[in-house]
Amino acid sequence: MRIRTLRLLAATAACAVATTTLAACGSGGPSRGGGDTLSVWVYQDGSTVIQEEFVEKFNETSDIKIDLVQIPGDNYTDRMRTAMGSPNAPDVFFNWGGGSIADFVEQDMLVDLTPILDEEPELKDAFIPTILDAGAVDGRYYGIPMRGVQPVILFYNKTAFAEAGVEPPATWDDMLHVIDVFLDRDTVPAVVAGADPWTELMWLEYLLDRRGGAEIFDRIRNGDASAWSDPAVRWMADTVKELVDAGTFGNNFRSVNYTADGASTFFAQGGGVMHLMGSWEYANQLSQQPEFAAEDLGWAAFPTVPDGTGDPGALVGNPTNYWSINSEVEGERLDAALDFLRMHAEPEYAQALIDNGDIPTTANAESLLDSHASPEFARFQYDMVAEAPSFTLSWDQALPPGKAPALHDNIEKLFGGQMSPEDFVAAMQDL
């Protein structure tokens, strides 16, 4: 499922390796490339076909060949983190940028790409600035975008909204009105998969961003725990409690999952009329509920909030995924690795992403969007990303490794009523 490409799920699964996967079970992995090869590790999913295609193109002309290693999603993070720093480490590897690689940066395990981007402005300018910046660590670049953008979007049921005489909410007062209207119609206003707390996180991320601006979480991500005591954080937690107490998410949302299509199916079948989710939800609905996707599915930006100082065009979610280079790679092999990364700035790569249903991260891709399977949705998504003043990476991916389980636990308790807003703020400060 596409969701697994960009969500950093804290799961340890048994090794189930497909025939195309070169990685083996165990704590290590395939030996790193040497001599005339580069070992490139990628998260194995439906989008890997693009990486296969471009590795083949690269190998046709390069003296240094790429050995593409595909690792099943459930195992990818653990395998990659175990391998880094060992003789089995990859030369180039797929990651989420930000906090997912911060400890590697601290240990000088990655090539700093900042000087190269400074020397090659055409390469740097090829990418949407907020996307490139979202993967940076302490203002330095250690990754090149290599997949599509996936912001969090407010999806809604156009037919249900029209029948109720309401529009998608542009302000928080609009949102409260919409909630009241559908509660009066005995309809769940907003679907949330409470069994998977990362879906609840999306509400927190946008509420904080709209209320206090992206800089609050920037401080948190950079190690300033005192930012959790900002009044906007408390307002965010209080607002979530008010939404839950009002019945916004229904009475049984804690038993609804996302990874097994529970929330998406509930939404498509009319059980709820709004769904705050990553842009991959469109592809999920198109695949699983094509009639609903074609006739009923609408999309909008998250609304503004009262007394908010955040930019209404700011985004949260998954800017993209990145390729990073192991600092042990040198000489001709480093030159080859850089050449491989440069391929991802080319229009040909952007077109391949579009053909696969993705939205490219390159700044010049607008002219290609008409070839997307859903041009209207593609343009909406591309425009909101290209115009966004900031794009905050999902908190559970932006924070240092190991923090996500506690973060998810606190979120689950806040939404479930086992933790008060005040206690949630205190628990996040301790985190």
UniProtKB/TrEMBL annotation:
Keywords assigned by UniProt, alphabetized: Signal
UniProt keyword ATP-binding, yes or no: no
Origin species: Streptomyces harbinensis
Keyword Phosphoprotein set for record: no
Pfam family, one: SBP_bac_1
InterPro entries for the chain: Bact_solute-bd_prot1, SBP
Recorded superkingdom: Bacteria
Protein name: Xylobiose transport system substrate-binding protein
